[in-house]
Amino acid sequence: MILTDNETKVDLLNNEAIAATIVKLLRDRPDQPVTVGVHGDWGAGKSSVLEMIEAGFEPEEKVLCLKFNGWRFQGFEDAKIALIEGIVTGLIEKRPILTKAGEAVKDVFSRIDWLKVAKKAGGLAFAAFTGIPTPGQIETVLGALDGFLANPDKLATKDNVEAAIKGVKDLLKPKGEGDSVNVPEEINAFRKAFDDLLEKAGIEQLVVLIDDLDRCLPDTAIETLEAVRLFVFTSRTAFVVAADEAMIEYAVRKHFPDLPDTTGPQTYARNYLEKLIQVPFRIPALGDTETRIYVTLLLVGAELGERDEAFNALIGVARERLKRPWTSGALDAATVKTALRGKAQYANNALTLSDQIGPILASGTKGNPRQIKRFLNTLVLRQEMAVARGFGDDVKLPVLAKLMLAERFLPRLFDQIAAAAAVAPDGKCPDVAALEAAVTTKEEVKGEANPEKVTDKGADTAKNRPKAEAVKTADSMLLTEWLSSPTIKAWAAVPTVLGNADLRPYLFVAKDRKDYFGAASVLGHLAAVVEQLFGGKFAVQGLDADLKRLAPPEAAQVFEAVRGRIVGGGSFDTEPSGVAGLVVLVKAHPTLQGDLVDFLETLPCDRLGPWACKGWEGVLKDVDASQRFDHLLEVWGKEGGTMLKTAAVGALHTRRGGR
């Protein structure tokens, strides 16, 4: 079961309201040119809204929709010309009647030829507001090309230049009476010729849908927008541009680097966008209730298929709730069962997951539909991988989902849990049990516990948490750190319990991110080496010869195993056991210097003792690693505790004074 990430006309987000509003806006005044912006973050559903707009115009015979994907024209020589020619060509292809309007078609294409002079004449820069050169400019280019031919060094390109000159001279042939002779008139002539083409095609309104503009390079994005500006005052033509405003503003700044940063209360980039986009629509992010409904619909749809009648009945119910999410709430079991009738069993997992992970998934993804889909796809693939490897019964979806929430949105927490669970004999993390117990106890005191929530039969739940045993570890530094974070406590409050679960199967299916087991489980003979590196300073010094015999991959796995256990310990005010072992290991394998600095950078400076500032002189010899450590000392000297600041400043002074 994989959730596709393509644009769709099946509306699970109630974005059809946005599409319907835009369709009505355009149809109210079909004779007036207008540009509409559909804005939203990457993955917010902009492309799907364009699909719905196109579907909304399908019954209208006198309305023609043309789609233009800016990203697909990324490699074209001139995106501006590509858009203009694409519009005219699309118009002719979809209205065969224009084959009889030969003169009108020829007139439009002759006007477009003027735009091509830039490329034919070696890169002439057109005026930004027109895109069309004056005859005087063309004469100048011709003179430059003639001089270019006189240069013996350039004879290899003589044929190309002659072709360019011929193309330009063709455009300079005497015009008939009444033809335009200057730039403003040429623009008006193009618009009139294009409007005449629409008239002969029997089109009351042309709607151009431009997608993926925010994926383009800055120059391509700006050229496309400049082409749109050419049509802005062309009657019966409307543009709907789907793009993230922030990316377009970035493109404007890159394309026009000499512009001042601001003009009055707004930036020039914002002003540029607002002058082009007359009516902006922004797709709102999903909230808690909307995310839970969306997750339920995605998973049920993946089971039943988008065309299933029962699923479409459920969509209808969901849309009613999405109209007023602040009062209606998510899809509960009874509502889903009524809508799906005989197929209600397909929604069991969907309801469980949406209920358990919906709130924190909404917060972590900031309500972004694409991020939600990617998360769910990874979740399902990992569970299916466990089944294929033969330990599917050991991986419960709710437990895997909660762990993945930490992996995706709280990576430091995930690393800490994984490091502790990977080396534990039973694969459990007592600090997680204590965290969940502490959070659950507070919830129950407030009367927030809800024992009637739908839960997975194989998953441990809040009512089964061993509170008394777990709270015994409350003096853990790691637990203290977690309890100080509202985000981590919100994660811990997700109903599924991890404290009593053997997390090793879940960590194994997450190996695409990092191997948390290292030598302890894969290279058994190295487990003894890891244990030896946790010995005293004098004892580990004698391991140098043995460590040098390790192959580089083995040394890297030993380093990761030692690092994981140190981080899992959570105490850094004094030098943790294992640090001296890392020093000896890195001396034996200098390629690990960067990994050592990575380790030091992850240590919490607010709980870090002065030991971290010294003792690395004979270890960090690589220039890059040494410079990174100096920078880290600067950070500690500003942000650490009193003792760490003093030690960091002194160490940095000593290191720089000795160079």
UniProtKB/TrEMBL annotation:
SUPFAM superfamilies: P-loop containing nucleoside triphosphate hydrolases. Transmembrane segments: none annotated. Residues 16-384 form the KAP NTPase domain. Residues 444-467 are annotated as: Disordered. It holds the Pfam family KAP_NTPase. InterPro entries: KAP_P-loop, NTPase_KAP_P-loop, P-loop_NTPase, QatA. NCBIfam families: QatA. This is ATPase. It comes from Geomonas limicola.
